[in-house]
Queue: 2 jobs
Job 1
Amino acid sequence: MTESTTFFLSPLIRITLLTLYIALTLPLPFLAEVTQAPVTPLLLWLGIIIGFVALYAVLTQRVIVNEQEIQVTYPVWVPKLLRQDWSLPWSEIKSLKCRTTGQGGLVYYFLTDEGKAYLLPMRVAGFNRLVKFVQLKTSIDTTDVRPLSQPWMYLILLICTIILLLVDAWTINIANSMI
C-alpha cells in the first residue's frame, strides 16, 4: 500500500440510492399541480433539489488509511451539518466489536481504551482490502468481518428502482395530460 489509500463509497450503492431518491420524489411536483395541493410545485422542486444535493453530499464519504491512522472524511464543500468526520490512530484501536442492527445485519465498531466506539465503514468499494489493512495495522483478526450488504442486494434494489422510474414516467404522463 502506498503512503495513503482512499476508499470511496461503492458506485453501485451511490447510484442506487440517488436513483431511488429521484424515483420517490420526481412525481410529486406533477401530482401537486394536478391535485391542486396546498404546496406549490415550485416549492417541491426546490425541496427535491436541496434533498438531492444533501443526499449526494452524504454519499461522498471517503475513508483514508495510511501508516498512522484511519480517517473518515468528506470533501470540503460538504457542510459540517452533514459530516461525521473522525480519525483514529491505529495504536489507539484495541478491538473490533460486532453489533447487530435493527434489521438483523452486523456492523463493527473500533473500540479504544477510553471506551469510544467508531463505526467501521462498510459500504466502501474495496472493503476487503480495507479490512486486510485494518488487520495488518492492528493485529485484530478480521477473518469473519463481512460487508453489511452484499452487492446483489443493491442490484436488486436498483432494478426495482428502475421499474419504479417507469411507473413514474407513466404517472407523470397521465398527470401532464390532465393539466
Note: The longest strand covers residues 93-100.
Job 2
Amino acid sequence: MKLVYFNGRGLAETSRLLLAVAEQEYEDFRYPLEVLDWSTHSFKREAFEQDKAAGKLAASLDKLPYLELDGGTVIPQSKAVERFLAGRFGMLGDSAAEAAQVDAICEFVRDFKQEYQAARKLAGPEREAAMNEWFEITLPARLALLEASGLVAGAAHAVGERTSLADVTLYAFITQFFDEFKRARAALASTPRLRGVVDGVAALAPVQAWLAARPDTLF
C-alpha cells in the first residue's frame, strides 16, 4: 500500500495511526510542502503541482490524501481511506450496530473540528477571544456531551472490547489536531471515559514507535 499526502500530519495522520496500530508496512509518500503564509494558506508545492498538471492525480480528483492499493486501485478522500483501513484491520466493531456507533463518534469529531476552524479563521483580539472560549468552554462542553451520550461505552475502548477507528480518531483529535495540544488535553478533565480512550491509544507500543520515528513537521 502507498499512502500519499503532503509532508505533514493534517488529513493523513489518522490513517497513519491506523496503519501503525495494525503494524502494517506501507509507503508513506509525502509531497514537499513549503509554507509561505499561514494566514492566507499560501504554500509552495512544486512536485504536487507538476504531477497534478501531468494528470497523475486524476484518480483522486487532484486531491490528497489518497491510498493506492497493491494492484493500483486508488481510494481518495481521507474519511474513505480511514474507514477502508479500519475495516481491513478489524477496527469497525464486531457488528453492524457497533460499526454505526464508531462512525457516529467519528462524525461528531468532524463536527467539532469544523466548529473549531470557524473560530480559528478569525484575526487579532477577536481570534484570541474565540480561541480562549473554544478551549475553556466549547471543547469541554462538546466532549462532555459526547461522554454523556452513551456512545462512548467504556473507559478503555469507545466501542466494543478492542481498539477501533473511534478510539484512534479521538486520540488523533486531542493529541494531533490542535496546535495548543495541552489545552486540548485539559479539556478532557471532566470526561474520564474519553480520557481513558485517548490514554489507551497513547499507551500502545506501535503508536509510541510511530510517534518516535515519524518526520518532524510543521503541521
Note: The chain has nine helices and six strands.
